[in-house]
């Protein structure tokens, strides 16, 4: 996993090494970007967001399942629960940035926005979507190999301009189910999906089209940022440990465009 070693606030734009990593691998990490106090506050905010989502789900909204994934729409978010029948453990909240002022402020944070401008390819950028991913100890489940671009292409065809910025809220390693990415797998664009595996089947990438043995773990300390291309093949294993693995994901896009799941716009860094 290539890191960048950025330390100063005037060095937030991409370094030549990061540009090369983005082009060749489709991802890179900036280690130790947020400090412990910031991460602690965001962890508290994440747990409060989970309570808000639970309360919203109890108060109403619509539940449905697709291919074993269990969803609930409430208070402007899609909540995804762990797969086990009846589990009320929340796995993903999308979008989540409206659930706490600190999450919303991060959309505009220069540490996210400045590199995202380079990755989107223009100065005026907006938020595309946001996800709070939660892998609880012993219950957090795997994410099968996939690319994000097939989920988004019907909505925003210029998918190469939708970079992800993932903030680790906990130290992430293979033991607690960190993300794994296949270097260079973004280069062919959207790859064929698995057919005949249910309605979401085509959205899981067919392993015949990438080399899973080349995957590398995104091992990162809490407060680190992983930048990854929407077409890089990625996935993660269950959290078999006693440790939490939580992450915030922000996906950016060219300015002037509306959010993915919400009929509103959220310009970034203005
Ligand atoms: O957090 C993870 O382990 C998987 C995240 C992911 O694949 C996604 O949000 O697209």
Please describe the biggest sheet, giving its number of strands, its sense, and whether it closes into a barrel. Answer: 10 strands, antiparallel
Sheet/helix structural class: alpha+beta
Summed up, the helix count is: 5
Strand content: 25-35%
User: How would you state the average pLDDT, rounded?
Assistant: 93
Named once each, the bound ligands are: 2-oxoglutaric acid
Taking Cα atoms only, what radius of gyration do you get, to the nearest Å?
A: 17 Å
| Shape type | globular
H-E order:
HEHEEEEHHEEHEEEEEEE
Number of strands: 14
Helicity level = 10-25%
Q: From the structure provided, what is the oligomeric state, counting identical versus distinct chains?
A: single chain
Report low-confidence residues grouped into runs of 5 or more.
none
Termini separation (Å)? 32 Å
Give an overview of the whole structure:
- This protein is α+β, with helices and mostly antiparallel strands and 270 residues long.
- It is built from 5 helices and 14 strands.
- Strands 1, 2, 3, 4, 5, 6, 8, 11, 13 and 14 form a 10-stranded antiparallel beta sheet that branches. It has a 4-stranded antiparallel beta sheet with strand order 7-12-9-10, with no helix packed on it.
- A hairpin with a 2-residue loop joins strand 2 (62-66) and strand 3.
- It is globular.
- Bound molecules: 2-oxoglutaric acid.
